[in-house]
Amino acid sequence: MQQEKYAQIEKELSPKPPIMKNVIKAFLIGGSICLIGQFIALFYITYFDFTERTASNPTVATMIFIAMLLTGFGLYKKIAQFGGAGAAVPITGFGNAVVSASIEHKSEGYVLGVGGNMFKLAGSVILFGVFSAFVVALIKTILVKFGVVSW
Amino acid sequence: MVKRGVLTFHSKPSIYATGVTAGPLENKKSVFAQQFDKSYEDERCDLPTNEDGHKQLMYDAVLIALSKAKKQPEKIDFLLTGDLVNQMTPSNFTAHALAIPYIGLFSACATSVSSMITAALLADAKHANWIVAGSSSQHNAIERQFRYPVEYGSQKGATAQWTVTAAGAALIGQHTQGTPVIDCATVGKVVDMGMTDPLNMGSAMAPAASDTLMNHLTGHGKTVDDYDTIITGDLGSNGFKIFKALANENGLPHTKNFRDAGEEFYGNDPSFKAGASGSGCSAAVFFSDVYQKLLTGEYKRVLLLATGALLSPLSFQQGDTIPCIAHAIELTMEEVTAP
Amino acid sequence: MISIYITSFIVGGLICVIGQLLMDVAKLTPAHTLCSLVVVGSVLDGIGWYEPFIDFAGAGATIPITSFGNALTHGAMAEAERHGLVGVVTGMFEVTSSGISAAIIFGLIGALLFTSKGNI
Amino acid sequence: MKKLSIILLILGLLTGCSEKGTYIKNTTPYDEHSVENVLMSNEHVKLAKVLLYEDELLAGIRVNTFSRFKKKAIANKIQKKLEREYPDLKVTVSADSKILLETEKLINKKSEKNYRKKIDKIKSIEKEQT
């Protein structure tokens, strides 16, 4: 049988991802995580000397701490199975990627296992974040130098 | 005339005994749980790492099969096992612990059948009296090997399968009356239909199963109706559906005696998506449910058709397709002739 | 006061919806999806849209991974404004160190405390 | 949807009804009417808490939901206007809810001691923003 013909049969018979349902779930879970983040930010604004803008740093750290607990107790993968991108896109998903890789590679020791593999999933996010920030800032700096735009 | 890949074992080697071990989740959720010989409270069998637990599963399965036949490891001529971890270390360590001459076999999830075929060849050629064949998988160890860390949250689609924590071993020897015997087998070719999704193994493996089934039927001059059941290894609900559609396309209209171990393993529980997978899945079902039904006479003749996806994490990350294989082996339960 | 909660819920949810569509419709892997979103966040900050967006949605804009790209770019640009081209490299982690340092610390603590469970 | 509405209901109960208007506490001889005029004339401002103390004018404002996109520009505009109205005062205007919150705390305080220290602190965390 030809590959093309099989691909057609396979496409016909395989279940399609329920996109509408997945989107709604992602919206609810992602929205809820951000809402919890907003509550944590409010906590830091009210009880500590953080403004709306500076509160985002401790908020992010707290969210990653919560993600660590949920990951360790085996709950984050269930939330992610339900919420899909709703659990992956918030910073908790980044935390989950780091913590799950660390837990997984503990058996190889803390130096080679945890240290070497901690960022095996999240590393690409850091790479592309840093590189795109570099390119964007470089372009902007050059444009400002030539007087095309201002800061 | 020798037909490529088609084997007939004239001496009809026997399967004397089988041993199946399974993890705690399988014990709780599998419909075959009652038929497993041993299950563990802990997914790592109370050992420090997943891979250690994996070794223990295989080791215990072999010992259970031997103890049922009252054999000691020293009496066994060959150990033929395999699994999915890097370089098959769980099998290698098991072989060391048992100190049986050993050949590690890798046919991914088809190892249960490929090891039985090799064992039958050794027995048929009178190179060995007793051979143990088997395969195993451990969920955490295999998920980490092929996909993501166990605790990583990624949404699995409806075609994803759950790697089982289970091991199955069979003790194979010279022909004896009153035991299921190995009649013939077909070694499959690698079939690659260009599938690339590692979370949809069923559709990648279905064409290989269909190819080997057709080769077996034509090579041995059989029809589907000659078998009480034709049971595939771990196609899962999606792959099994496609496999049946391919069979219809190949002129096999009756597929009601088809079974799939992967689809049945967790009793169609939707939280396991398309069902079970892993080299322990086919071994556990073949050596528990199917073997016992042969012993009780419910099945007279069965075709075990184990499928394997021969990918590695490296190959699919490099954008390669998923090559797949299927091996078939035919077991019969002979009527015991009165002395 | 209440409106910031509604906007953070809706905006955060919508960013996740974009991620879900990238995964389900564009068939990207989770890693590719997150990388794309980070790059988008970085570019949006480059044209100066992300900061007003945070003012509007609060945590709805700072919790999704897009804000990581934004924070990196923001740090790089702020330093570039002061020190010129060299600042592009040196200022990168000025704003965003908390996410990465928290991930490293809690990653190690998580490894100390937990082992993986093959539950469902 | 049911869950969402419950969440919103709880939120509503927690935060109470949004307050509106301009609250001014003046401990200086300066006239606070032009502060009120400047703030009320700006359509984006929903709530403002203003404190005049010695040579300081501290204003925390909250803008309408969809004006939040440009809330920094709004605060800057008001600040410029107030600086023109009160050339002798050090004017601080911020749309950050932390400033609003702290200004409100000061306004509600009975005694005026520690005002100087608190105001300096508010001004310093306001500067941290970027």
How would you characterize this protein structure?
- The complex is a heterotetramer of chains A (151), B (339), C (120) and D (130).
- Chain A is mostly helical.
- Helices cover 75% and strands 0% of the residues of chain A.
- Chain A has helices at residues 3-13, 19-47, 56-72, 76-83, 85-88, 91-104, 110-117, 123-145.
- The longest helix of chain A has 29 residues, at 19-47.
- In chain B, helix 2 (50-68) packs across helix 3 (89-98) and helix 6 (201-220) crosses helix 7 (236-249).
- Chain B is of the alpha/beta class.
- The model of chain B has no long low-confidence stretch (mean pLDDT 94).
- Helix content of chain B is 35%, strand content 22%.
- The mean pLDDT of chain C is 92.
- Chain C is globular, with a radius of gyration of 17 Å.
- Chain C has 120 residues and is mostly helical.
- Chains in contact: A-B, A-C, A-D, B-C, C-D.
- Chains A and C meet through helix 2, helix 3, helix 5, helix 6 and helix 8 of A and helix 1, helix 2, helix 3, helix 4 and helix 5 of C.
Please name the defining characteristics of this protein:
heterotetramer; B: 339 residues; Peroxisomal Thiolase, Chain A, domain 1; six-stranded mixed beta sheet; 10 helices; C: 120 residues; mainly alpha
In short:
Chain A has 151 residues and is mainly alpha-helical. Helix content of chain A is 75%, strand content 0%. Chain A is built from eight helices and no strands.
Outline the secondary-structure elements.
The complex is a heterotetramer of chains A (151), B (339), C (120) and D (130).
Chain A lengths: L2 H11 L5 H29 L8 H17 L3 H8 L1 H4 L2 H14 L5 H8 L5 H23 L6
Helix pairs in contact in A: 2-3, 3-6, 6-7
Chain B lengths: L5 E3 L5 E9 L1 H6 L8 E2 L10 H19 L9 E5 L6 H10 L3 E3 L6 H14 L5 E8 L1 H8 L15 E2 L2 E8 L6 E7 L14 H20 L8 E4 L3 H14 L8 E3 H5 L10 E2 L1 H17 L5 E9 L3 H5 L6 E10 L6
Parallel strand pairs in B: 2-3, 4-5, 4-6, 7-12, 10-11, 10-13
Antiparallel strand pairs in B: 1-9, 2-8, 6-8, 9-14, 13-14
Helix pairs in contact in B: 2-3, 6-7
Chain D lengths: L1 H14 L5 E6 L6 H9 L3 E9 L2 E8 L7 H15 L4 E5 L2 H12 L6 H13 L3
Helix pairs in contact in D: 2-3, 4-5
Helix fraction bin of chain C: over 70%
Number of helices of chain D: 5
Mean pLDDT of chain C: 92
Helix/strand class of chain C: mainly alpha
Structural class of chain D: alpha/beta
